[in-house]
Amino acid sequence: MLDITNNSTPKLVLLPQIVPLQLKVQPYFSKSRSIGGKLLREEKYSSNQVRVVTVEGAHRPNENVPEHFTVLITVQDEVPHDWQPAYDCSCTYDQKATSQYNLGNIQGDILPGLPKTVEYFYYFSITDDFGEIFKRAVFPKITSALKLVSQPTAQDFLGVNVGFTAWFLETVLQLPEALQDKAFYAGQRADSQFLGDAGAIKNNRWWPSSWDKPFNLGNFDGVFIITAFNESVADKFVYDLERAFSTNIVRNLLLKGTRRPGGEGQNDHFGYRGGISNPEVRGVTFDTQSQSDPRYPGSPIIPMGVVVMGYDGDSDKDTRPVWAKDSTFMVTRKLDVFVPEFEAFLLQRGPKYFPSLPPDAAADKLGSRFFGRWKDGTPTELSPDSSDASITTDGERVNNFIFQSKGQTHCPYAAHIRKCSPRNYVSPDESDNSHL
Fold this sequence. Notes:
It contains 13 helices and eight strands. The chain has helices at 37-40, 130-138, 145-150, 166-172, 182-186, 188-191, 213-217, 231-245, 339-353, 359-371, 389-392, 416-420, 428-433; strands spanning 50-59, 70-77, 118-126, 158-164, 199-202, 205-208, 222-228, 249-258. The strands form three sheets. Strands 4-7-3-8 form a four-stranded antiparallel β-sheet.
């Protein structure tokens, strides 16, 4: 290039050139949030056509690389006539579609489950005028399955459900037809001996001696289940409840439960991540306005009637009374959980089973064999020797597996997750209807 400061010399002139740029824009779509990156760009996730809306002028994002330009292109879905999406699941998700179930008549803790950081169990007996007060003060606050699947949950959320005892249904309400369930009418006391509770036979009747006194005194009429994210919200409901009923209700017992503190809110009382492989019901726990896909692929998808009376999957569907449809059976059982003792047991026994590991690591590995997962949720079937963050953060992997290791080296037959969901170790029909 010549010196351009001298006007008499020839100059080298650089003229802007228009270089055609051809771009192929291919959109991809998945209803699962865990599908991303290279996985999303698989052909099965390709979506419909798009059209270019705007193209903003190119600019240099890095002056040190002058040949590098960035172009911002805005595109919009171009939906052809009669086009139908072919998503990565067999269902078609329509927010306006009505459910095949009467979700407004199903209590939310049955399905999909009341959200919570605190939960109260309010056991009660009634005296008089219960029905009218219940209709006025409690019924409008009952949280249905419909509300949970169609409305966002706010921080001031209050969840309220109610259950009634067999004694109340028979004696107080005097319902004409029975529920066809012997265990429900016999009550838990009759089974407690076979559940391992301490006790003795008195007057030809078994009496558990290890039960808390309120449970052993006599019959309850029912229980309110109260959940919230803030304890003050739950406390206010209890206050309003007792104020509305006044002397027409007797509080037999109030049990309060909270999550583990800190960042362990999703873990169970032993500190292991829970809720990963809960059974799913299409149209209730997924394929809804608030949840399109199963939260964790690999969870068993079960018929509605396995949980709720009156639907396919309920073996007594044809003999249930009309008033029982959309309800279920509930068992509440207070258990002593010895968390420090369990942790001490792992520290004592772990090094004996895994002598090559440090004591803490040996304890963690032994604990993982009891649950079938490491504390962060990593399945021992997929990672037998340690937890793996790449698995626990991948919703497509953390629960989407089968038991294929030989023997019990990875996941013992008695492990919690294997007993609750045997996966490929039972037939599909048995698996659909046999989950704890």
